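Would you mind writing out a protein's amino acid sequence and the numbers that encode its backbone to help me picture the idea?
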Amino acid sequence: MVEEKDLEARMIEAKDKLRIAKEEILDLARSSQAEKFDFYLARINDAFQGALVNRRKYILERLEPVVKLVLFDPQMARDIREKKGYSRQKLADILRFSKVNDHQCIATYERGVVTPTLLSRGKGKVYLEWLKGEGYNPYDI
């Protein structure tokens, strides 16, 4: 009986140690990601500051899609549509997307598969303008 209680106590202690170790590993991973992000930003800034005009333009052109990808929040876009009570098909109809399966285009935006931009012709631009009209303006347009 005593051995059983002792074994049970050691198991609880081991589980606690394992939980603490797991939390420490997760904290380390989070801080490592933040450090990596800061490192990338610093390197980009250094490269930009030391670059000639043409190179700066090149850096900005390549960086812009990444920034837009980060700024667009697919979940917020979906929440806005759902708050209005629209299905994807209903919104596609309202936006006058002409093809039968154009609601799938909205689905790709809301799942984060594709990021709509103002540079995109047609649907992406129309969708962003609708979101702006609903109060969501991810790119400050």
User: Anything to note?
Assistant: The mean pLDDT is 83. Helices lie at 2-49, 53-71, 74-83, 88-94, 103-110, 123-133.
